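Quick one - first record:
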Amino acid sequence: MGQYMFGNLKGWEHFPDIAPKYKILVVGKNFGAGSSRQQAVDCFRTLGIEAIVAQSFAPIYFRNAINSGMAIISFEDAGARRLLERLEDGAELSVNLQTGELSFPGRRTGTIKCAPLGPVLLSIIEAGGLFEFANIGGWKL
């Protein structure tokens, strides 16, 4: 499924070829808007993307990502946005979901404070998704 991602968007046709080199995707505002299907999250996972950092997420996409165990985090600070816009492809970025911080190992840029996820959402991500989380709790789905 991932091999078709963005195939209809001019300039992005080769995204599936380059995505496997990266683990974290940094995107802009209202990411995932217009897509309520689970495949919109699963495509990134099939390409090896482990986390998505966005200025904001569309609500349905946000929940679908959490439910599938995708690590996601959002930032609102304008300074953070400017710093992330200057990132070069392949720059090292570290995401700490527990503290809600982004850092740049090897750079003196400090950390970016993001919106931390609550304990339940973190537990769902750590379990690998909503169904796995339910199984840990002994619920039968």
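second record:
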Amino acid sequence: KEKEEATQKAKDITRMSVARALHLEPLQEIDLPVNKTALVVGGGIAGMTCALSIASQGFEVYLVEKDTDLGGTARKIHYTLEGLDVQAYLRDLVRKVYQHPLIHVYTDAIITEATGYVGNFVTKVKSDRGVTEIKHGAAVIAIGADEYKPTEYLYGEDDRVMTNLELEEQIAKGEEKVINAESLVMIQCVGCRNEDRNYCARICCSQSIKNALKLKEINPKMDIYILFRDMRTYGFSEDYYREASNKDVKFIRYELDD
């Protein structure tokens, strides 16, 4: 009996599907006009590189940045682990953006409204020029990220406690209290690899080694300690970890329970 009922149900489903198919219409391709202007949100290195790439292919680009100057977080980075001059590269990139005839730059700007559909969007941008309505067919979101500001280890209470980016800026400025310090301690994994953020940022270890090597170059007698949970210097960055060890940068493993 169950077999007969199942067969009858299958027949009913088949009949219903055939009946529905009788009323179906074939799908047709529809051509929609596409606005060939692009909007890039975020004027950091990624946003500027993207804007230049699109503009170099002959398309108009609107580049929107919330800060007064282009550059984003890269404005706070002065050198790479390999020793390259980030600020020189950044200045050249900004110059190319401003000089390109197809790139329109809006700084001190925020997006107040976005409407439209695929290929035809309308975005309103508020800046010191007032509210500008931008019509575009594509949008690239390159807003980057902000540095984590810790609440631990007396950060914000003692001016000797700073982030790695803040340390780099002080090294670049030649701050006496930093470059002439007798000792310096870097604590890795602050604010990550915990319950709130259970991931590794992947750049902090290299950033610490970069600053440690720069300080050793300026002041070889400085005692530098890097407290780490796992030292993650990927690929060829391992060479700089060894270099730091050879220059007597002391690496000390710790656990959260410690």
